[in-house]
Design goal:
Helix content: 25-40%
Strand order of the largest sheet: 2-5-1-6
CATH topology of one domain: Alpha-Beta Plaits
CATH architecture of one domain: 2-Layer Sandwich
Distance between the termini: 15 Å
Number of helices: 2
Radius of gyration: 16 Å
CATH superfamily of one domain: Dimeric alpha+beta barrel
Strand content: 25-35%
CATH class of one domain: Alpha Beta
Protein name: Transcription initiation protein
């Protein structure tokens, strides 16, 4: 089984006024279905009100992330699934709930983790 990251950037969600609560309920329903199916690892979103900190090997902290990297924000769901086909099906369910396309990535297994 592999772990799959299903995610979207904040800008991808273009929800009409008054419908965000409905989208939240739909997304939470997909998460609850994943839990019931025994494939849920974790889910959540980046708290965009808290800026990132870049921490160097010597412990030096610089406010902000890598200046050359795109902003990391949005929602993330990690599921453990037996196949890419099942991951695509779950990503489609999340896309329908969130009303935006989802990126699908597979984690490489690290046997020492």
């Amino acid at each position: 089984m592999s772990k799959y990251l299903i995610s979207f950037p904040s800008a991808a969600m273009d929800v009409p006024d008054g419908e965000l609560e409905e989208v939240g309920r739909a997304a939470h329903a997909v998460v609850e279905a994943a839990k019931a199916a025994g494939v849920y690892v974790f889910a959540g979103g980046i708290n965009e009100s808290v800026p990132p900190a870049l921490v160097a090997a010597d412990g030096t902290v610089t406010e902000g992330g890598y200046p050359w990297a795109p902003t990391l924000n949005g929602g993330f769901t990690v599921l453990e699934l037996p196949s890419r086909e099942e991951a695509v099906a779950w990503a489609a369910r999340m896309a329908q709930a969130c009303r935006c396309a989802q990126e699908l990535r597979v984690f490489q297994f690290d046997p020492q983790s």
